[in-house]
Write a structure and sequence with these properties.
The complex is a heterodimer of chains A (about 475) and B (about 210). Chain A is of the alpha/beta class and about 475 residues long. Chain A has 15 helices and 19 strands. The N and C termini of chain A lie far apart (about 55 Å). Chain B is of the alpha/beta class. The complex binds iron/sulfur cluster (SF4).
Chain lengths: ~475, ~210
């Protein structure tokens, strides 16, 4: 029987049947952050259970911590109890913690791949929907709520129904100026924010194969914005090379054995998918969202659609509400729209390659005077590497604020927020109502588009001089 | 976990597609708000105006729907963040069941862990139920019967729905998953012993 990569990943973790339709699935890595992780540890304690295997659990604070230079857990007071709970739980159970200011701390989906905590073929969970990011390494990685997280802490397993297998192929090559971020936004725009419901998405095709690892993480990051809890890419030499020597990756003979096993992590050529979609990569232009769902996305030079052209009544209502919230008129392109804020950060686009890409555009220029522009590195390690290359100086001398690693303006749960009514071009992944702050208007785009737009003070088509 | 068997009451129609968990409960409320108090902040961006007063136009502020136990929603309900507080917030305003053409996987998982039943019915059916409710908002009632796996509309029409039998049992009995799984501890330990040989690189050393 030809098998999909999903079949292989599922089979490799299936401990036992769990009753009709579900399996007991082994969980190889559990990641805890200061919101859901702290809650789950408290819940395990409340119910009187232990932590089954602390060696497979990792913790780092990222969500409700200030990213102001010189921050501590106390800088954002309301977040301090979550960090304290995480520290206390980690100490009590012998869980590895990467604390503020320490090497390894960072947005959980940035630090886990970077430290080799995430590896191909592992099942990885976190109380965070963007855990699917880590599927970029070929892992079965997905977000769970705190009750499921507590279940996994107590039993090292979850009771799960196997998702359906979806493949999304990006055929051909991306044009110059198109990044993984543009590609995945375009896919969500084409197929819809709910297209992947009930599915695990395997991203495949020539354009995906050609992506470096960090771009694969970006691509898989937005799988959940297409409705899929899980997204992954079959691991290959590019991944193995990137992972070799990382802190928690195997070494020596164990590494060789692991790589040999990882080579079989792919879908058979004649495997059948429940849903099989394809898009031509060469037609994808730089994308920017106009509305309040990631599916509200268009190429930067295309006109904002009118609710009258919406495919159904529900969308007509949603589009009209989104335009009103965003303060936009249909018919005009996003290109040229004045912006107030730029946020380069988040688990989508705050890795070293993202910062390099943005810095190359910013170098020697100045942020438009009416724009507040922030760079929030994805992790302590990204920050240190960027500083070693002098990227912080490039950003700072252009007028960007260079900050400490964390989620920051992606979710505005740490006291940092885009002000009401302000328009923010953001490299993050969600443009929901109020996501970046009450009344804040978000436009999602790539780091390159964000960097150029910060300089211009308006949304820029990076294929043109600005 | 709260048991779920049968719920009858008004059903609030909120049919927009892609209602996300950020709108259900804002991220800043996840910090320091006890589970039991999340209901105060459910849908706050829609429920309250910028001056803090209630927006009378929002469906959950209209008298028949103020503590409606059933929500009629559009496709992809509960998309976005995995925050379980979205379920606690809905439970906090009295919602026991969400009926929608599709529900995000993570939200559905969280809902089932908290005795809140997600019911998937075809879009036409959900719209039809909403139309019947809107026609007589003060009196129209919907019944969700988990035992029979049916939704009974205000017109008496019976709409069957599917649910994993295991999940149904657990909801009917108010059983939590951890207890169930720990009964399989032997099988898990045996699998892990074998896996240590099969995939030794997975198994890290404990912190000393
Ligand atoms: S950066 Fe944003 S999307 Fe990523 S984990 Fe943090 S809050 Fe979630």
């Amino acid at each position: 029987m030809p098998a999909t990569l999903l079949d292989r990943l599922w089979e490799a973790h299936r401990v036992a049947p769990a009753g009709a339709g579900r399996d007991v699935i082994h969980i190889d890595r559990i990641l805890l952050h200061d919101l859901s992780g702290a809650r789950a540890l408290a819940e395990v304690a409340e119910k009187g259970y232990g932590v089954a295997n602390p060696a497979l659990v990792f913790a780092t604070p990222d969500h409700a911590v200030s990213t102001a230079p010189g921050r501590t857990a106390e800088t954002f007071r309301p977040g301090a109890p979550g960090v304290a709970l995480l520290r206390e739980g980690a100490r009590r159970h012998g869980i590895r913690l990467f604390d503020l200011g320490e090497d390894g701390q960072g947005i959980v989906h940035v630090m886990a791949p970077e430290l080799g905590i995430a590896l191909p073929g592992l099942s990885i969970i976190c109380g965070d929907s963007h855990t699917c990011t880590q599927g970029g390494l070929g892992a079965l990685a997905f977000g769970v709520g705190s009750t499921e997280l507590a279940h996994a802490l107590a039993t090292q397993t979850l009771r799960l129904a196997k998702p359906r297998a979806m493949r999304v192929r990006l055929d051909g090559r991306f044009p110059k100026g198109t990044t993984a971020k543009d590609a995945v936004l375009a896919a969500i725009g084409r197929f819809g924010a709910g297209a992947g419901a009930g599915c695990a998405i395997e991203w495949a095709g020539e354009a995906v194969r050609a992506l470096p690892v960090e771009a694969r993480l970006t691509l898989c990051n937005l799988s959940v914005e297409m409705g899929a809890r899980i997204g992954f890419i079959a691991p290959d030499e590019t991944v193995f090379e990137w992972l070799a020597g990382r802190d928690f990756a195997p070494r020596g003979a164990a590494w060789d054995a692991a790589v040999a096993a990882w080579r079989s992590l792919r879908s058979d050529d004649d495997a059948c998918f429940d849903i099989d979609l394809a898009m031509e990569a060469s037609g994808i232009a730089p994308q920017v969202t106009w509305g309040t769902s990631p599916e509200h996305v268009i190429a930067v030079d295309q006109p904002i659609p009118s609710p009258d052209s919406a495919p159904d009544a529900g969308r007509r209502e949603a589009w009209a509400a989104a335009l009103a919230y965003q303060g936009l008129q249909p018919g005009r392109p996003l290109e040229g729209l004045p912006i107030d804020w730029v946020f380069i950060g988040s688990c989508t686009n705050a890795r070293l390659s993202d910062l390099r890409e943005a810095a190359a555009i910013v170098a020697g220029r100045t942020v438009a005077p009416h724009v507040s522009a922030w760079v929030v590195p994805g992790s302590e390690r990204v920050k240190r590497a960027a500083e070693a290359e002098g990227l912080d100086r490039v950003f700072r001398s252009a007028g960007f604020s260079w900050r400490e690693p964390g989620c920051s303006l992606c979710v505005a749960a740490n006291g940092e927020a885009v002000p009401p009514g302000a328009r923010c071009l953001s490299t993050s992944n969600r443009n929901f109502v109020g996501r970046q702050g009450r009344g804040a208007r978000t436009h999602l785009a790539s780091p390159a588009t964000a960097a150029a737009s910060a300089i211009a003070g308006r949304i820029v088509d990076i294929r043109k001089p600005f | 976990m709260q048991r779920f068997d049968r719920v009858t009451g008004p059903a609030a129609p909120l049919l927009r597609p892609n209602i996300d968990t950020d709108v259900i409960i804002r991220a800043e409320r996840l910090v320091g708000t006890p589970k039991e108090e999340m209901g105060r902040y459910a849908f706050e961006a829609w429920r309250y105006r910028s001056d803090g007063t209630e927006d009378p136009g929002f469906v959950l502020n209209r008298p028949p729907f103020r503590s409606a136990p059933i929500l009629l929603a559009g496709p992809n309900f509960g998309c976005g963040s995995s925050r379980e507080a979205a379920v606690w917030a809905l439970a906090g305003i009295g919602v026991r069941c969400v009926i929608a053409p599709s529900v995000s996987d993570i939200f559905a998982g969280n809902a089932l862990q908290n005795g809140l039943l997600p019911v998937v019915l075809p879009e036409e059916t959900v719209r039809g139920l909403a139309a019947l409710i809107e026609a007589d908002p003060d009196r129209a009632r919907i019944t969700v019967d988990l035992e029979a796996q049916t939704v009974i509309g205000p017109d008496g029409a019976v709409h069957p729905f599917a649910i994993d039998p295991d999940r149904r049992e657990a909801l009917l009995a108010g059983l939590d998953d951890i207890g169930l799984t720990l009964r399989q501890a032997g099988a898990i330990a045996a699998w892990q012993a074998e896996d240590r040989r099969r995939r030794p690189w997975v198994w890290l050393e404990a912190l000393t």
